[in-house]
Amino acid sequence: MFSILAARPALRASTWTLAVLAGWTVGAQAQQAAQQTGTQEINTQFPTIDVSGQRVEETADGPVSGYVATRSRAGSKTDTALIDNPQSVTVITRAQMDAQNVQTLDQAVRYVPSTSSQDNDLRFDQLSIRGFAADSYLDGMKLNRTTWFANPRIDPYFLERIDVLRGPASVLYGQASPGGVVDMVTKRPTEDPLHSITVGIGNDQRRQLGFDFGGPLDQDGKWLYRVTGLARDSNTQTDHIGEERLAIAPALTWRPDADTSLTLLTSFQRDPQGGLFNPLPAYGTVRWNPNGRISPHDYLGDPDRDHFSRNQYSAGYLFEHRFNEHLKVRQNLRYLHDDIDYYQTSVSSLLNPDYRTAYMWANVNKEHMGQFTLDNQVQADFSTGPVRHTVLAGLDYQYLRSNIHRGGAYFANYPIDIYNPDFSVLPTVPVTLDQTTRLTQLGTYLQEQARLDRWLLTLGGRFDWAHTDDRQDNAITGLPSSRTDQRDHAFTWRAGLNYKFDNGVAPYASYSTSFQPQTGTDYAGNAFKPTEGKQYEVGIKYQPNDVRSYVTLALFDLRQSNVLTADPAHTNYSVQSGEVRSRGVEVEGHAELTRNFSLLASYSYLHQTVLKSNNGDQGNHPVSQPVQMASVWGDYTIHGGPLDKLGFGAGVRYVGKSYGSADNTLVVPSHTLVDAAVHYDIDRWRLALNASNLFNKTYVSYCSSYLFCYYGAQRTVMATATYTW
After folding, report:
1. Which has the closest alpha carbon to 469: 515, 442, 443, 435?
2. Given CA atoms 714, 715, 719, 722 in this order, what sign does their dihedral have?
3. Spatial separation of the C-alpha atoms in residues 447 and 460, rounded to whole Å
4. Distance CA 94, CA 117 (A)
5. pLDDT above 70 (res 43)
6. Angle, CA 135 vertex, CA 532 and CA 108 arms, to 5°
7. What is the 8-class DSSP label of residue 424?
């Protein structure tokens, strides 16, 4: 369990933060009560939202008014109140994404506790939660990736909300990282007419155009539609790296009656320029280099040959039918295809004694990946005496097939001067290997949510069968190179208990597990077992009944076992005796304190340790994970008077130090960044100006070794004009 003594500094900081957030909430309650004495202008009924003047109930995967969500499906696969979930869940609403003008998933999660990203890599999202890699989901279905670079990327412009579940979630989703789940919820067809066009310009010659149309197609509202599109063209802070995107997502809902709904979701995305990989050596970024500092604008790759492009499309549906008030069924299905064409040259050695020359690596990847996901659910709501039950039973299936044509080479005979590079001397790498991979997962799960008076007990169990078939052939001769055929199975479970007081305070405790297959064999030829994760989490959630706010405090002890580490008896082989532990504290608050002022705040402390290892890093902190993170964002909008609907937003993000090498001798300093926004609504127009990293601080986001360090995003400024009718 979590060591309280070891975390006293974090607990003190968390307690103060929680007290401030709770104080703001209580103050808002008093102010709101005073306002309501003289006027009925503010409606504090909760959790309803206002859409086109009509009050409608908030749902777990629908739109949210403002910054404060109250329900989520990510932590239970049922429409459950956040305060009733026995794990930590953060919801990033559409209003928050718009206010901060987020352009990537990385930017969207930067105000979420214990959640970090690579910060400045456009190729794909690389998120970590509680010190472990996070899994990405779209509409509750996993976005699988290949073993290399074909990794689906979703633009936030097409999302209604993002739900971040922290901690193991295999009981719901099957094989998964112990860190948690990021579930993106797409925009759905709307009952009310929606027409919006957005034009944006920014630094680095950024230009983009977006549109979002929706509404009923017939008078009875049985057919609803939505079409969202985006075009973007931009340079980046790094020379020779560009960003281009064309994307569209049509959706159609059919509701033949009040109990049945079928929503078709499709998308197409073309990224002619999808970013590039730009690792930099530690000497010249984090460490001093006698030849000078490497600039964040420098690209240490071959601009003439390097490229990354993506074609991505998907089609699927969400189906739900309610037989009666006690029984309903859901079926969610999606097929997604991803093609990438990638050539990359990058520094791949320590600097030579002159501190200016190094050796390069180049890889070529032409990847084609198709994935199919199906999730069947049956939900029963009933009572047995005083106990109210929500029972969920499910069967899901995932299948992925990828064809990868790849090659790579290390150029040990061609030292490159990184301060004055000449890449023309490097040969072009050809495709030398053809790899075909098939992944399947079949899982069945059962969950019970039993409520007795103020108590809520959550129990869940799941059994999975996973199969990996990987074949690699020499692309030149056609002869087999290697073959892996591995089958795994695992049982995972979760238990949680919540108690809700009348004043909105709800303490909770939970235990959850996860598993994640890993391919390969040990020296004896035995297939590696899946890694196993387990987590204890306790906390308090606070959601007052008469003001829109939600505050959480969580303590967790998360461990991953069966981790691969060097075999001490056999060189170049691995054994599964490794273990990593993450202990931490998180506090988070979302609040609409007055009609004018909304606030987000979070703090997290992560003490992550390699408990068992043969790699010489036992007792050390894993690389790239910041020890402390804190953030606050506020938005103030004037209502009434000559400045009616003029608003201002500002945020501060602190990311503590992290370690950049397994031996912890390389320390990446902390950094503090400031974001700002101003917006003005006039008639049907919304004009906004957003700045991220306002003071243009140069910082290293993280290092994974002395070879690979990465600059964070410098100042970005973007002006947008949105017309809605």
Report:
1. 435
2. positive
3. 4
4. 20
5. no
6. 140
7. G
Of the candidates 394, 243, 211, the one whose C-alpha atom is nearest the C-alpha of residue 309 is 243
Residue spans of the domains in the chain: they are 77-181, 182-724
Give CA–CA dist 186/610, Å, rounded. 37
Cβ pair 140, 373 in contact under 8 A: no
DSSP state, residue 26: H
Grouping H, G, I as helix, E, B as strand and the rest as coil, residue 148 is: coil
Q: Which CATH class is domain 77-181?
A: mainly beta
Tell me the β-bridge partners of 346: 361
- The DSSP H or E segment spanning 518 is none
Alpha-carbon gap, residue 626 to 181, rounded angstroms: 19
Q: What is the pLDDT of residues 650-696, one digit of tens each?
A: 999 999 999 999 999 999 999 999 999 999 999 999 999 999 999 99
Tens-place pLDDT, residues 433-488: 999 999 999 999 999 999 999 999 999 999 999 999 999 999 999 999 988 899 99
428: nearest Cα among 414, 446, 444, 449: 414
Helix, strand, coil distribution of the chain in percent, nearest 5: 10, 55, 35
State the DSSP H helix or E strand holding residue 112, giving kind and residue range, or none if neither. Answer: none
Mean confidence (pLDDT) of the chain: 91
Pairing of strands 180-186, 135-138: parallel
Candidate CATH numbers 2.30.30.280, 1.20.1250.20, 2.130.10.10, 2.40.170.20; the one for domain 182-724 = 2.40.170.20
Strand partners of residue 224: 216, 253
Backbone angles phi, psi at 299, to 5 degrees: -110, 115
Q: Which residue has the tokens 């320590």?
A: 350
Query: Which pair of tokens denotes residue 504?
Result: 């909105």
8-state DSSP, 476? T
Phi, psi of 38 (to 5 degrees): -100, -15
Residue recorded with tokens 């790849």: 406
Contacts of 594 (CB under 8 A, 6+ apart): 28, 31, 32, 35
Residue 24 three-state SS: helix
Q: What is the DSSP string of 288-337?
A: --TT-PPPTT---S-TTT-EEEEEEEEEEEEEEEESSSSEEEEEEEEEEE
pTM metric for this prediction: 0.91
With vertex at residue 87, the alpha carbon angle to CA 86 and CA 88, rounded to the nearest 5 degrees, is 135
By the 10 Å C-beta count (0-12 exposed, 13-18 middle, 19+ buried), 254 is classed as: middle
CA 263/CA 605 separation, integer angstroms:
41
Q: How confident is the model at residue 145 (pLDDT cuts 50, 70, 90)?
A: confident
CA distance linking residue 406 with residue 410, whole number of Å: 14
**Mean pLDDT, residues 609-638:** 95
Going from the C-alpha of 363 to that of each of 147, 151, 238, 345, 723, the distances in angstroms are 14, 17, 20, 7, 45
Neighbouring C-beta atoms of residue 694, cutoff 10 Å: 18
Q: What is the mean pLDDT of residues 150-154?
A: 93
Q: Indicate the residue type of 357.
A: T
Asked if residue 646 has pLDDT above 50, the reply is: yes
* Sole residue written with tokens 């009609």: 595
How would DSSP label each residue in 645-667?
Answer: TEEEEEEEEEE--EE-STTS--E
Helix (H) or strand (E) run with residue 158 in it: none
